[in-house]
Write a structure and sequence with these properties.
- By secondary structure, the chain is of the alpha/beta class.
- The chain is built from twelve helices and nine strands.
- Strands 6-7-5-8-9 form a five-stranded parallel β-sheet.
- It starts with a helix and ends with a helix.
Length: 292
């Protein structure tokens, strides 16, 4: 199946390197997955503090206490999931997989919302393959990072390649795709993503600002700043991005709210919600959408 991906996803600007494509995540047996240690929290919850409401974005009504453990935002801490959560995830994936009929799942959301990690979990339990659209774009220009693409070629060039990647991926089946935070701004991208099922991972801006500040914003060209309080500057820029993108995110067919998950689990802090719990909620919401 991967060979077909390589043939179908050939773009005029791509290097043609097989390294563009990660190994499909459906090669690992489910039994292995539920026996080994898995990655849990993006950030450990410890110092609890009240966060002020963000202008232009609903106040979370929760507390945010995210700190990094010197890891990238895409890397989660290794802990053992509870057996109950693993079994719930496995059961729900087995129930929903036949109903998907091979349709792709597109994860959308603000930068730092955990789309890549959640996507990898979903792809594994559903027997799908996983792709990160930003990584494919980087390979399309010879391995240049997203930050450098913005510097060297500008955002318009990046968005054009992003649309081309989504176009190619939309012709395929049985994929979970993590999209970039700004993929939602082009209407044409929704045309491609709606060939599958689009899922909005909704994380409060204050939590995102805490996460991104903890790991740094150098690799995120739309957030990086040279001076001033890092958290304040990041929150301000996220708020501006949200004002531009919030309406576009509403085009997603499914919404997964971390506030809702935290409330259901009795947590006062969205940072205490782990990726497995988010993946379970995503499957529940996808199932509800399919029943409509």
């Amino acid at each position: 199946m991967e060979a077909k991906f390589l043939q179908s996803l050939h773009l005029t600007t791509w290097t043609g390197s097989d390294s563009v494509f990660p190994k499909p995540h459906n090669s690992m047996g489910l039994s292995t997955r539920f026996e080994r240690k898995r990655r849990v929290n993006m950030f450990k919850c410890n110092l609890v503090q009240t966060v002020k409401p963000v202008t232009g974005r609903r106040a979370s009504g929760l507390k945010v206490s995210c700190t990094s453990q010197n890891s990238p935002a895409s890397v989660l801490e290794s802990e053992t999931f509870t057996t109950e959560e693993d079994l719930v995830l496995k059961k729900k994936s087995e129930e929903i997989e036949p109903c998907l009929s091979g349709r792709c799942i597109y994860l959308v959301g603000m930068m730092g919302s955990g789309k890549t990690t959640i996507g990898q979990i979903l792809s594994e339990v559903l027997g799908y393959s996983f792709f990160d659209s930003d990584k494919l774009i980087e390979q399309s220009v010879g391995g240049t990072t997203v930050a450098d693409i913005f510097k060297l070629h500008g955002e318009a060039f990046f968005r054009h390649n992003e649309t081309e990647v989504l176009h190619k991926l939309s012709t395929m089946h049985r994929l979970v795709i993590s999209t970039g935070g700004g993929a939602v701004v082009r209407p044409i991208n929704w045309k491609y993503m709606h060939k599958g099922i689009s899922v909005f991972i909704d994380v409060p801006l204050d939590a995102l600002a805490q996460r991104l500040t903890a790991v740094g914003t150098v690799s995120r060209p739309l957030l990086h700043h040279e001076s001033g309080d890092a958290y304040t500057q990041t929150l301000k820029k996220l708020s501006k991005l949200w004002e531009v993108r919030s309406e576009a995110y509403s085009n997603a067919q499914v919404r997964v709210s971390l506030e809702r998950i935290a409330a259901k689990l009795g947590h006062g802090d969205v940072c205490c919600v782990n990726p497995t719990q988010i993946a379970i909620e995503a499957l529940i919401q996808i199932e509800d959408y399919l029943k409509k």
